[in-house]
User: Which sequence fits this backbone?
């Protein structure tokens, strides 16, 4: 596969990989002298499930110091010299303005890792202002040993930095965790079991080499490159495992180095909303129920290549102002289920009426519904709409078998 950056950027030169290496951790760094040493210490101090030091040969860290004007690279090299057992590769690059961005840095490292690892090897990402948990590598490897093709880690922020945004941030996390619980109740996935979270972002993402290659790799975007990689994987029917044992803590610092929408910008906007007494609106309980029931019905329709007599899909067509025949054409033309569901979901999310309530109301309703359904065996069986014995995953995992 031709890399779009290859005409302008030569590949990274790295020492040979250790034969026992299973996972390459990629870390982009731009002027991170204040953060990089704690990040590297956390990556070095990894332990197994029993708390014993993890074999340092089973993983490596590739750090790309790009366009730095501080001592980031020197500090990282000194750390590598002080800890020769820690397989840390430090590379410096200066990108031209037209390609200089975090997406370019991530892609260069992930492409280099993909070249070094076998097809079942694991490419992981974190950030240079992020502290991975001591079990992060072991928990990631365990998830892949259980059959994962992509893993998203649980990401938290410390309470000791900016605080203006925190109320809405905590509401957002609570809401999305409850959404994940509701989705599991309606559309349970055996390889992404409960308890699960919702995150699959740059501070903690991992993907098998064969799945990374099949989806086209990390897009070299100026912002939300991690989200775009997740979308690309979804479109080839590679789903993330959201394992709460894979954990990191990332900085909530303000940042002006990313063009476009980034995590720090979302925190800034939430802080402004609190100061101005504005409240975000999100899909409420009924729209969440519709979304996940539509997802189940769409999956069945995709594999049968027809709508059949599904009331849920006639309801979906009506909501999207489509005729049933038009929706059936979209189902029949979809290359994968993931591509079909992603397009439908994004169309729904762009519909103003689909986000219809505040965090407070949505959280209260979701919590009450999921709690009562979990406590009631009858309600629990009524929520889901997957027929007994019907396979809901794995029928079309293109390029990742």
Assistant:
């Amino acid at each position: 596969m031709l890399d779009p950056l290859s005409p302008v950027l030569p590949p990274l030169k790295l020492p040979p990989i250790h034969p026992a290496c299973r996972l390459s951790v990629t870390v982009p760094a731009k002027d991170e002298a204040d953060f990089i040493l704690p990040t590297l210490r956390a990556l070095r101090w990894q332990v197994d499930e029993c708390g014993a030091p993890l074999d340092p040969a089973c993983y490596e860290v590739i750090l790309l110091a790009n366009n730095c004007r501080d001592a980031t690279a020197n500090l990282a090299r000194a750390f590598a010299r002080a800890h020769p057992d820690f397989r840390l590769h430090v590379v410096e690059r200066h990108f031209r303005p037209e390609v200089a961005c975090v997406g370019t840095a991530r892609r260069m490292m992930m492409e280099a890792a993909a070249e070094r690892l076998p097809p079942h090897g694991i490419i992981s990402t974190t950030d240079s202002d992020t502290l991975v948990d001591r079990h992060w590598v072991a928990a990631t490897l365990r998830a892949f040993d259980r059959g994962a093709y992509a893993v998203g880690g649980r990401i938290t922020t410390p309470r000791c930095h900016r605080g203006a945004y925190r109320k809405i941030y905590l509401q957002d996390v609570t809401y999305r965790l409850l959404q994940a619980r509701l989705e599991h109740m309606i559309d349970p996935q055996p390889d992404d079991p409960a308890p699960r979270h919702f995150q699959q972002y740059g501070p903690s993402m991992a993907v098998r080499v064969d799945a990374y290659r099949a989806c086209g790799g990390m897009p070299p975007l100026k912002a939300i490159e991690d989200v775009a990689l997740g979308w690309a994987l979804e479109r080839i029917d590679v789903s993330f495992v959201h394992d709460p044992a894979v954990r990191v803590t990332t900085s909530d610092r303000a940042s002006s180095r990313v063009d476009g929408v980034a995590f720090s910008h979302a925190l800034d906007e939430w802080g402004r909303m609190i100061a101005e007494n504005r409240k975000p609106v999100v899909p409420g309980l009924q729209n969440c129920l519709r979304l996940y029931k539509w997802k189940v019905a769409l999956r069945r329709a995709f594999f049968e290549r027809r709508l059949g007599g599904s009331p849920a899909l006639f309801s979906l067509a009506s909501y999207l102002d489509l005729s049933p025949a038009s929706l059936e054409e979209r189902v029949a033309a979809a290359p994968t289920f993931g591509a079909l569901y992603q397009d439908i979901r994004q169309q729904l999310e762009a519909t103003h009426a689909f986000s219809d309530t505040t965090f407070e109301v949505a959280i209260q309703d979701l919590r009450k519904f999921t709690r009562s359904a979990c406590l009631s065996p009858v309600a629990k069986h009524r929520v889901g709409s997957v027929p007994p014995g019907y396979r809901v995953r794995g029928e079309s995992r293109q390029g990742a078998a």
